[in-house]
Amino acid sequence: MYKRLLSLALVAGLAVLALVVLPSPKLQIGATNEALEIAVEPKQPQLICPGPVYVNGGETGLKLGNFTQSGVSKIFGRDGENSIALSASGIQTLDGAVAGSKDFNAIQLQNASLKLATGLAVANCQPGQNEAWFVAGDNSIGREALLILVNASKVDASVSLQLIGTNGPIQGTGLSGISAPAGKVTVLPLAAFAPKASTFAVQVSSRGAALGMWLQQKTIRGLTPGGLELVGPTALAQKSLEIPGLFIRSSAKLLSLAASQPDYVDTKPILRVFASGDEETTFTAQVQGADGTSFGTVIQGTLSAGTVRDFDLGELADGNYVIHIDANQPIMASASYSRIGSAQPDFTWVTAIAPTKLDAGFTAVGAGISKLSIANPGAQAGKFTINGRTVALAGNSNTVVNLTAGTSYRISSNVPMVASQVIDIASTVAVAPVLDYRSVAGVVKVTVR
Predict the structure, then answer these.
(1) Tell me: the pLDDT tens digits for 130-150?
(2) pTM score, two decimals?
(3) What pLDDT is attached to residue 59?
(4) Which ranges of 170-292 does DSSP label H, i.e. alpha helix?
(5) 333 CB contacts (<8 Å, ≥6 apart)?
(6) Phi first, then psi: what are they for 381, rounded to 5°?
(7) Strand stretches in 201-280, DSSP E
C-alpha cells in the first residue's frame, strides 16, 4: 500500500513539473497547413490515328458482324522540327517528342475506292479522352454509323453510351458496361442501339483508360457505295457556336439528283442541332459567305429540351460559307453537305467549334486541294497569323486561305476565332477542324491534413 501511494505521488509530481517547464501546444481551430507547391511535368504526348475504313464482313462482305479495316490511310504531321509521313493499314499511335498541338500534330487521309466503301475520309489524330459527343450519324436504310473506340493504353476501359433522338433519349439494352480492352479497337454499330434512326446524337463516356473516339459514317445505295466519312467529337454545349468549312460545289447537279431520286435526298445540306439543356431552345443560324462573294441564308428553329433535329439549309448556291449559331440555351451542332463529280456523290460532316484565341498547329494533307476556312464571329476586328503571314479579319466575317499540300502550319489570333481545313480530291470532300490539344507543365498545390 505504501509503495502504491509513493508511485502515485511521483506521477503527480512529474505531471506538475511538465505543466510548469514544458510549453503548452498551440491549438488551431478551423486552420489548415500551408499548401505545398509541386511542379508537374507534362506526360509524353501521344496521338491516336484510327487508320483505314472499317467494313462489315471483311473485304468479301460475307462475314457479317466482323468489322475489319480495309485499304491504307496516309498520315501527315509534325513533331518538333520533323515531318511525319506514314502509311497505315491499321490503327497508329504516335509518341511525340514535344507537346502538341503547335509542335506535335497529325492528320490522316484515305480516299477509298472499295467494293463496300467509297469516299474521302479525313480525321485528326487525337489524344485519348474519357468523354465525347457526336452530333452526327444516320442509321436509315443503306446508311451505317459505326462508333470506333481505340484503347491504345495498357489499362482496360468500361464504356457507357447515351443516345438522343428526335423525341429525346433513346432507350435500349447494352448501353453501359461495354468493354474496351487495353490495346484493342472496339467497333460498335449504332444501329444495334438506334435501328433505322436517321437523326441522333451520341455521348460516349469511358471509365478507366482514355480512348481515341470517332464516328464512321457510310452510305450504300442498293449495291453501290456512295460516300464515306470519319467524324470527330463536336464542341461541348455553348450558346454561341461556329461551323466553318461549308464549301458548296455542284449544287445544281445535286439538287436535280435529289429531285429525281428519293434515295439522294440526303445529299442536301443540313444543320443538326442538339438542345442539351433542360428548357425549350430557340436558335438563329446565319449561313454567311466568305469575303462577301457568296450569299447564304438565315434559319430559325425551336427544339424541345433534350432532343435532336435536322434543319434544311435550303438551296445554297456554290460558294464558301460558315454557319454562325446563337441560341438561348446551350446547344451542340454539326452540318452535313455533299459533293459530286462524274461518279457517286461523297459527303462530309462538319463539326461545330467554340471560338477561342487561336494558338495551334496543324498540317495540310498531302493530296488534293486544301483550304482553310477561318471566321471571326465577334464584333471586334482582329487579325490572325499563319506561318508568319498576318491577315486582318473584320468582326462578324470570314475568309479562306489556300494551303500547300503536306505543309505544317502554326496559326494564332488576337481575338477568338475558329478554323477548319477543307479537303477536295476529285470532287470528294472532307473537313477537319483546327484543334489545340497541347499537354503543358504546371504547378499543383497539395495540402496535407
Answers:
(1) 999 999 999 999 999 999 999
(2) 0.87
(3) 54
(4) 251-260
(5) 135, 234, 241, 243, 271, 272, 273, 274, 323, 325, 352
(6) -65, 150
(7) 201-208, 212-221, 224-231, 238-248, 270-275
- Nearest in space to 147 (alpha carbons), one of 48, 228, 213: 213
In terms of phi and psi (left: phi > 0; alpha: psi -120 to 50; beta: otherwise), the region of 256 is alpha
Q: Is the pLDDT of residue 439 over 60?
A: no
Q: List, for residues 28-84, the tens digit of each pLDDT value.
A: 555 555 666 665 556 778 999 999 999 987 555 555 568 899 999 999 999 999 999
Least-confidence region, from 17-21, 187-191, 208-212, 336-340: 17-21
What is the signed CA dihedral for 177, 180, 185, 191, rounded to 10 degrees? Answer: 10
Rounded to 5 degrees, what are φ and ψ at 3?
-65, -40
d(CA 290, CA 110): 28
394-420: average pLDDT? 97
387 contact partners, CB below 8 Å, separation of at least 6: 409, 410, 411
Measure the CA angle with vertex 208, ends 149 and 354; round to 5°. 60
Output the nine-digit C-alpha cell for 414.
Answer: 488576337
Residue type, 14: L
> If DSSP codes are grouped into helix, strand and coil, which group holds residue 187?
strand
Alpha helices by DSSP H, listed for 93-155, are none
CB distance 436 to 359 below 8 Å: yes
What's the longest Cα–Cα distance across the chain?
117
Q: What does the buried/exposed string (b/e) look like for 141-170 if buried means 16 or more CB atoms within 10 Å of the residue's CB?
A: ebbbbbbbbbbbbeeebebebebbbeeeeb
Phi and psi for 22 in degrees, rounded to 5?
Answer: -80, 145
Distance CA 310, CA 377 (A): 23
Please name which of 307, 404, 308 lies closest in space to residue 363, comparing C-alpha atoms.
404
Rounded-to-integer distance, Cα 400 and Cα 241, Å: 19
Please give the mean pLDDT across all residues of the chain.
Answer: 89
Provide φ and ψ at 280, rounded to 5°.
-55, 140
Q: Which amino acid is at 55?
A: V
Q: Which residues contact 294 (CB under 8 A, 6 or more apart)?
A: 317, 318, 319, 320, 321
241: its cell numbers: 457556336
**Are 190 and 138 contacting, i.e. CB atoms less than 8 angstroms apart?**
no
Lookup: cell for 265 = 435526298
**Percentages of the chain per state (helix, strand, coil), in multiples of 5:** 10, 55, 35
Q: For residue 292, what pLDDT band results from cuts at 50, 70 and 90?
A: confident
pLDDT of residue 445: 46
| C-alpha–C-alpha distance, residues 122 and 100, integer Å | 19
In contact, 345 and 228? CB cutoff 8 Å: no
Identity of residue 151:
N
Select from 373, 382, 134, 358 the least CA-distant residue to 243. Answer: 373
